[in-house]
Amino acid sequence: MTVFHFLNCAVLTFGPHVVYYSATPLSEYDTIGTSVKAAVVYLGAALVKLVCLATFLKVPDANDSFDPYQELMKILIGFIDVAGLYFALTQLTHRNISQNHKFQAVGLGWAFADSVLHRLAPLWIGARGLEFTWEYIFQGLEANANLVMTLSLAALGSLMWLRKNKPRTLIPIIYACALLLATMPSITSYLRRSLEWQTPKVVGFELFSSLVMAFISWQLFSACQRPM
Amino acid sequence: MSPSGEVVASVSSALAVLLVLLACVELGDAAAAVGVYRLIQYDLAGAPLGSRAAALNHHAAAFPLPAGADLSRSALVAPLLDLPLSFLREYLSEKKHLGGLLILLPRNISAKNVEGNNDDKGEPKNVLAELEKLLMHEEVPFPVYFAFHDDNLDNLLADIRKIASSGQPASASTGGYKLVVPSAEPKRVSSPTISNIQGWLPGSRGEGDAEQLPTIAIVANYDTFGAAPALSVGSDSNGSGAVALLEIARIFSRLYSSPKTRGKFNLLFGLTSGGPYNYNGTSKWLRSFDQRVRESIDYAICLNSVGSWSNDLWMHVSKPPENPYIKQIFEDFSDVSKEMGISVGIKHKKINVSNSRVAWEHEQFSRFRVTALTLSELSTPPEFLESTGGLYDTRESADVESVMRTVKLVSESLARQIYRLRGRNIDVFADNSSLAISPHYIRSWLDLFSRTPRVAPFLQKNDPFIVALKKVELSEHTTDVHVQNDVLDGMFTFYDATKSTLNVYQVASVTFDLLFLLVLGSYLIVLFSFLVITTRGLDDLINIFRRPPSRKVKGA
């Protein structure tokens, strides 16, 4: 029984990435190489992040409250992700695929690597136990939200760094949205720790906000696509 | 093999190793782990008795049960007072199978029923005694465990009841619970040992007195027997007797420490084991003595269950009360008891040598033709394996005051005999004197006895408790301290696994997992369709399902 539950949770966590790849034109243009490169960049960025976290943050106590300075440091370190995405989008040489597909492939690789790194091990150890908890189902839902957000961020990133002629009025909005997306992990951590939201509420918020952000990014992206 | 093939092989073998390693990662991830105590498992003359199984892995159930429920694959969780004995009797007599039974004991067993309205259920103590008697003398084919009420178990019970009352089949939202006791097959305890501990207080021989001094023996058995070996602390039976003996040894050692006050009697103190098994240890102990020593014993006072009496104590003898010797001892006790304002009664029960049942410890002495008596609060001889320190016999069932009165009674009358003070009305062990009986000493020993389960087969011969009794206590006050280890006689076979850990898991039902898979599948299909439609158009989606054969043709 427990293996069944484990498989279910694994499908919920990693299924959407596969579905996304096979359903969109990404599979037709064979962009897996780009995704793998993005995943490798993610690994590098995660390593740098770990080193930074270990260097600049103190060990959290059990009864730790929300410390603004520590959180600010965390947000700054969180921007290493953005730097990584920038590197993956602009500095890597990709087989010539359209910008349209490039950001999707990078975002997908990025989100998949994130899921594997952060969710596979807990899933393997936890979901196979006899004990049933909702935790791993929520974790799978979180992976879904994370995929949507990473794609949105990658889309905005490609707008910011790759597209030269975009409507001037939209530029501040693009930057604001990107900033919001980049700080999203800190926001959820604030909700969890400081406002003491329960996991279902936090996951619901993540899912909702990711959909909203995806919609906004989509609108921005298509607005920039239109010829001026 | 080509180089690339080798690489693939090595990578795949490395992956296999990794997977094996990952599969080994098992964590104790139970929602709750509770210490539980198993019902005793033993054979009596070949007949299997007690709980015959230890491993438990079943879904939890609780009263009230739905009509016609099949419990053969359920672990029944029942608080002591909610478990109808008739239900259990029916299961045992009809040999119906039960997955397992977990009985929740109240923290304080002696406490009176606080909720006055459920008087029909009776006092926990009486209910427990009856339950224990039932379970101990029957063969129980399923595992039975005892646990104390705690928050985890109370929550569990409330949850199970909620599920049962809603009448829904167990699903993840209502939740089912699985009780797991990982336990190997219980093993026989090979050659159970009993340890008798003895110490002497030698009297002073008058000058030129060649004759051997007479000896007075004070004896108490210290081991217990109960439904749960790991919970049989037997504070009253017979912790109280053993504690009284230790205190008597302590105060007489003060008198005997100075040559001036040393009496013309040897005092022999014996803490015997094997008491519940017809005083098997006492018999072994007496047999180990030299014939001369045994004959020098004037008489023996056995102390049994002296921890909870208010006014009446009984002196049990196997010789007729008209016997001048017995009469003298009884008069001594009566004199002191009158001064103390209590009453001592005498009960005579003849011994039957052909009957293997030995109800009182003094009967073993009588079989060796040594005059002996038992002081006890019990007015009638206990049945076999009764009053041997069962589950209900906890610290609350023995009080320091009773033990002190017993010590006072015994030591005063002994002193009058030893120092020939009869009829002089002298209080040798008066309060506030240096020979006063110490309530602190009695309390601390009674507390220790009440924390230590003492079922002889599970008490190793070098158990800290026995070492404490021998080294710390008797050696401190008496000389020639000696521990006699012997094997318990063959009628009994015991099995181990007396306590273990119960893991409580909250588990989801199969239906939930299937439902979840269904929802998940539809979610992924919807997501797939949505993505295809938005990025490639509806036609492509339809083509995916329609075209495969034509594509093949194209490819060919």
Automatic annotation (TrEMBL), chain A:
It is found in: Cell membrane; Endoplasmic reticulum membrane. It comes from the Eukaryota. Belongs to the TMEM147 family. It comes from Triticum aestivum (Wheat). This is BOS complex subunit TMEM147. Keywords: Cell membrane, Endoplasmic reticulum, Membrane, Transmembrane, Transmembrane helix. Its main location: membrane. The chain crosses the membrane at residues 39-60, 72-93, 169-191, 203-221. It holds the Pfam family DUF2053. PANTHER family: BOS COMPLEX SUBUNIT TMEM147 (PTHR12869:SF0), SMALL SEVEN TRANSMEMBRANE DOMAIN-CONTAINING PROTEIN (PTHR12869). The keyword Cell membrane applies. It is a multi-pass membrane protein. One of its GO terms (cellular component) is endoplasmic reticulum membrane.
From TrEMBL, chain B:
Its main location: endoplasmic reticulum. It is a single-pass membrane protein. Residues 1-30 form the signal peptide. It holds the Pfam family Nicastrin. GO terms for cellular component: endoplasmic reticulum membrane. InterPro entries: EF_Hand_1_Ca_BS (IPR018247), Nicalin (IPR016574). Belongs to the nicastrin family. One of its GO terms (biological process) is regulation of signal transduction. It is found in: Endoplasmic reticulum membrane. The keyword Nuclease does not apply. Keywords: Endoplasmic reticulum, Glycoprotein, Membrane, Signal, Transmembrane, Transmembrane helix. The chain crosses the membrane at residues 514-538. The keyword Transmembrane applies. This is Nicalin.
